[in-house]
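Protocol step 4 of 6: structure prediction from sequence.
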Amino acid sequence: MRAAAAPAADIAARVGWREAIAATVAGLGYELVEVERAQRGLLRVYIDRLPERLYAGSDTPGGFVTVEDCEQVTRQLQYVLEVEGLDYARLEVSSPGLDRPLRTEADFARFCGQAVSLALKLPFQGRKTWQGVLGVAAAGGWQIVFTDGKAEQVLGFRLEELREARLVPVLDFKGRKSGAQAPRGGQAGAAQSAAPGVEGG
């Protein structure tokens, strides 16, 4: 028997606003990728679908974030943030974009086999930025495989050695669906709203 989800007010009362956002997004069945507080009171929340979950209107698990997904999360977050008393002028919920950031071990496991770009904290062979196909390193940790000239090279790394990692955008116009299904490109899968009592700008 599954326990009922805690009301948004209870979540917000027990934790800080960032944790309340994370708990709310997770409770709705999405992954919280990133939260940003921008200028002029803009609060940006980036969400993604979980790869193993089947969403309404979809025949296969996972898939791209839709406008409907963003609107659902926006409505719930407005209530949570009002309870939490967070001062913001505008809330924007969207997909993480084609160049989605990778931060956790789960992110790296999920996107194994895809092209990624890395920024190292310390240079390796005089470079900090590298790009290649992500894989699991035989000795533990992760690796990217890339072509340097004509030879295939492998760069192994651990997450603590990275400053940043992102997916390399792949544009596939042939496979793109029309209608509500939006790409991971941000604005097509975004919902915006003003804070209660505040005009959006």
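Step 5 (inspection) to follow. The longest strand covers residues 115-124.
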